[in-house]
Amino acid sequence: MIKKAGLTGLLLFGMFFGAGNLIFPPSLGALSGEQFWPAIWGFVLSGVGIAVLTLIIGMLNPKGYVEEISQKISPWFATLYLVMLYLSIGPFFAIPRTATVAYEVGVAPMLSSNIGAMGLGLFTLCYFLAAYFIALNPSKILDSIGRILTPIFALLIVILMGLGVAQYGENIPQSSATDYAQNAFGTGFIEGYNTLDALAAVAFSLVAIQTLKQLGFRSRKEYVSTIWLVGIVVALGFSVLYIGLAYLGNRFPVPAEVMNADINKGVYILSQATQAIFGQSAQWFLAIMVAMTCFTTTAGLIVSTAEFFALRFPRFSYKHYATLFTLIGLAIANLGLNTIIRFSLPVLLILYPITITIVMLVIVNKGFALSKVGMQLTIVLVTFVSFAGVVGEQCQILFITEWINRLPFAHLSLPWLMPALVGLALALILPHRQRDI
Fold it and tell me: pTM score, two decimals?
């Protein structure tokens, strides 16, 4: 059982840990300054705790979140929500982001500055061809990712993190950025959204289920115990690397002009710290580490997204979907890292609260009978508040933003939490309640 959990945990860790997991922790460390610990705990809560819990809950149901959402909310909502989720963690945001980070952090510094977009284009073409080759054989993904690539890139990250903390750990952190000075925990919590891990957990739960089926179990009890062990393996791996990378970013000396510039602080810290620690061999080390880290996630996302669409919309085959999503990811990757991050955050601010609420409903429904109408109302309330908050912020509609900020827990960047709790309370008392067994 421990061996099965270890192998599956390594596979999932390799699929989860990608571009955002590398660049956002050191960026948070630098920007949080003196407010490092509340910021990183917020980040770990949303980036690790909620993600792992989402993964475990999805793995407990052999049919995954499709059945859970269809039964508790409605089949059409399950389809709509999951399509948006898979497209977000797949070809529109996460897949192209992994390729762009691999290029900008690892490869671009070794190229001449006049190469520009041509270098990104050539790199992403080769990168996506390799990922597509692995994705065409999803049954072999345990061997190619879990047993081989994950241990290699995890060891490289640990080496960089350990040496970096040893060299810069005694430095005094810089002053906190405005958002962190005012609300360190809430800002860190929202930054955890950028990892996409809670959304990816919905998708990867199906991959984990298929992997565990290949390993075989003697009983349901052994299967459930293995799932919880898998969750522990993934949670420990993430927490150690997140805190270590963030601490490195918190203590690494970043010039004021870089802190004030519109560049990705995580990319800068990873690149500069690696060069400072390893000298002339730095960029090759960084290129290999980042490419492996991002590549495992890219292959895993192509597989999980193509498998979902092939099952949900069987008019086209898995191979057709894998080809389509690889090509879309290739095209969007060439827009550049900052562009991808800028467009992804508003979508995440809507999808994340809905995802967390769904997980909450599934958990509560295993212990208490809930009304289906009440659960539907809970999702409506959370979706409305999340959507309104994004519209108010993006369109600069002050009265909407002010209304959202008056809601309880808004100071923690959780304005949707009270509507979720109100909806859950109604689901406990409204008629026609049902309970999961």
Answer: 0.83
